[in-house]
Amino acid sequence: MPKSIIVTGAAGFLGSHLCDYLLGEGATVIGVDNLCTGNRRNLDHLKNEPRFNFVEQDICTPFDLGAVDYVFNFASPASPVDYSRLGVETLQVGSAGTLNTLEIARKYGAGYLHASTSECYGDPEVHPQVETYWGNVNPVGPRSVYDEAKRFSEAAVMAYHKYHKVNTHLVRIFNTYGPRLQSNDGRVISNFMMQALRGEPLTVYGKGSQTRSFCFVSDLIEGIVRLSRSNEALPVNIGNPVEWTILECAHEVLSVTGSKAKIDFRELPTDDPTRRRPDISKAKRLLDWEPKVSLREGLEKSLSFFQDYVASEKSQAAN
Ligand code: NAD
Ligand code: UDP
């Protein structure tokens, strides 16, 4: 169990949950973030935690916070809305940011885990997606700033493993949700939950027949921590293999929230992947991991977070 850990992207959705998990195990954690999509609010509960320090830092600029045992690299805009708005920044964080954090791991002999993504598979022609599939990414399409940055990151991580003998790990994360998702980052679960609770129509893109497989955040973090302690350097899928159409997902959100909101069909974004489901045989075999939380349970666990958000919007509007 490493003692001193850097988590980049700590003020974001996944990074903040990872910090909580590591602190809960007794580690000392330095959270690094430039707050471009994250929020200090996600770390408010750690204000009085002596084993946690926050450093506001853009990881695209080289930095050195002293000797550490492990680096978890989670910094990057992550939703299609965010990475479309921050296209060049996304390419920079996936290239310079990844190299800078790998340098820290090399310098201090630390372990390293990079948050990669199912987007490396693009609009996949192999279903479900297995780690040995190389993907189908449009290198000049609207999603390319994210997909290609993440693919570059994977190459950089493998190079540091090969040439500098850094103990590296690559997790390919499939759509994950839970409390602390940004309410306005355009991702499907946050959009649907906010819309349902506001009583606004749920915006389903296309016919809603495209599929995704949704993993609850606690399952994901457990898988990631297990991977960080394994000997596997090649990519490992972590996600929930239960596949939902987006229209089915909209109905599940309506049912969990008890909302009577309507469904509003909108144009399907360019290059939106048609199907996505992880093959998690490798994670099961190597890490003895599989998700435990169903979409319904996960949405129920997330409900109060989104209800609080909508309530605070209402009280702000009233003032
Ligand atoms: P998020 O936007 O909530 O968190 C990302 C954090 O990184 C933010 O706090 C942001 O401010 C920070 N950041 C971005 N650029 C930075 C930079 N240059 N320097 C320092 N900090 C920077 O997103 P998330 O969902 O928590 O995603 C975390 C990581 O997991 C990302 O790398 C993302 O690509 C990956 N991932 C997430 C999902 C998912 O479903 N949530 C799926 C696949 C991969
Ligand atoms: N989506 C939708 N309505 C929304 C937001 C997203 O129908 O309000 C769809 C989107 O077109 C995609 C899926 O939901 O097919 C997942 O989108 P998200 O942005 O959450 O993640 P990603 O496309 O990166 O998997």
From TrEMBL:
Example of a GO cellular component annotation carried by this entry: cytoplasm
Domain of life: Bacteria
Record has NAD as a keyword: yes
GO molecular function, one term: UDP-glucuronate decarboxylase activity
CDD domains: UGD_SDR_e
A Pfam family of this chain: GDP_Man_Dehyd
Compartments reported by the entry: Golgi apparatus, Golgi stack membrane
One GO biological process term: UDP-D-xylose biosynthetic process
EC number: 4.1.1.35
Record's keyword terms, sorted: Decarboxylase, Glycoprotein, Golgi apparatus, Lyase, Membrane, NAD, Signal-anchor, Transmembrane, Transmembrane helix
Name by which UniProt lists this protein: UDP-glucuronate decarboxylase
Stated family: Belongs to the NAD(P)-dependent epimerase/dehydratase family. UDP-glucuronic acid decarboxylase subfamily.
Cofactor(s) of this protein: NAD(+)
